[in-house]
Predict the 3D structure of the following.
Amino acid sequence: MSGTKLYEGKAKILFTTDDPHILLSRYKDDATAFNALKKGTIANKGEMNCAIASHIFQYLEAQGIATHFIKQVSPNEMLVAAVKILAIEVVVRNIAAGSICKRLGLEQGQALKEPLVEFFYKNDDLGDPLITEDHIAMLDLATPDQVAQLKKLALGINHHLQIFFDQCHLTLVDFKVEIGVDVNGNLLLADEISPDTCRLWDQDIADPSDRIMDKDRFRQDLGKIAEAYQEVTKRVLAVDISAHS
């Protein structure tokens, strides 16, 4: 089904199809952290993340969130709408973890008063730096209207994901998303929602290290990485998304 390889990123490969408006996204087992300074593989990660993302995309679509997802066509492949990805990573934080603790001196695990939306410049050479709305305007990365839409969309996704993951007995600590612009100028949730892009903590485990169910297990050399992804996959696929449509 795949045609010409268009792009290969850290976690996926995009191929053309017979339809210029549709691409094939193939998920990889490769794992990277710290702007690809740390590299490895997680057994069957491609299949697990593809299954998780497919299920969550369908759930979000049922909640009125427009995504690039069309359908899953193999264990590690899905068809997606061709979009132009904005050079902005949008991060939503519900609990302090990771880089924000270092930047602002917050305590790991500190609940935030309200969800925080941050923007990062998608540029590997620069290390994906934190940027403001003024930086976005200066760099011409998005229009003011698009920035407003990005915030609203990110907070909407966060609301629905918190409900979803709560059913999985997982706390959504934070997550990052990439947004694409389709041929009609509409903003669509793109890339993926998975343990690669979300911090997820097991609600039934108190230990700060043992409760981590995401790529932080790889980043921090905590072990049992594939097992954590397997458990997340099992819990996510157990959620009946038809009940939320």
Remarks:
- DSSP finds six helices and 13 strands in the chain.
- Helices lie at 45-62, 99-104, 133-139, 144-167, 216-219, 225-237.
- The chain has a mean pLDDT of 95.
